[in-house]
Design the sequence.
């Protein structure tokens, strides 16, 4: 039996998240090795380099979230408007975070509201609400595909 669409979405989302985590982990390892070789010891790198890497990671993560959320927004047409509104609000928040991290040269350039975790917690809450809704109310078109009239040959 084919997996329900919500399970496919969860698996895809989790796979993207794992790929992103692996990529960020590899970037961190590469940077750590480079830093150790340059300094000749096991001490950590310069704070500015660490800050730069952290900002690069934040930009990458928020960009991936933005792409994923755009796909979700386009896929949920026809669902209740309150859910669509929450997903669109999540996308706006992700876009704001990505813009803030992209414009920042250091953490001092970021407002305290960008650095709080509450925004991401709200986005996660909205996405879980969407998935809970879909688990119990899978749209018919997701199960059987779009309906289109057959063309009869003459």
Sequence:
């Amino acid at each position: 039996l084919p997996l329900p669409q919500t399970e496919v979405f969860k698996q895809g989302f989790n796979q993207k998240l794992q790929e992103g985590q692996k990529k960020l982990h590899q970037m961190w390892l590469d940077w750590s090795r480079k830093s150790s070789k340059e300094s000749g010891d096991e001490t950590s790198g310069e704070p500015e380099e660490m800050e730069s890497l952290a900002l690069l990671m934040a930009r990458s993560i928020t960009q991936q979230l933005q792409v994923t959320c755009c796909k979700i927004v386009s896929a949920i047409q026809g669902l209740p408007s309150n859910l669509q509104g929450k997903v669109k609000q999540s996308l706006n928040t992700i876009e704001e975070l990505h813009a803030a991290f992209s414009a920042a040269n250091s953490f001092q350039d970021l407002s305290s509201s960008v650095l709080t975790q509450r925004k991401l917690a709200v986005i996660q809450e909205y996405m879980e609400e969407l998935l809970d809704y879909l688990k119990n109310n899978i749209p018919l078109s997701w199960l059987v595909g779009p309906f289109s009239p057959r063309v009869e040959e003459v």
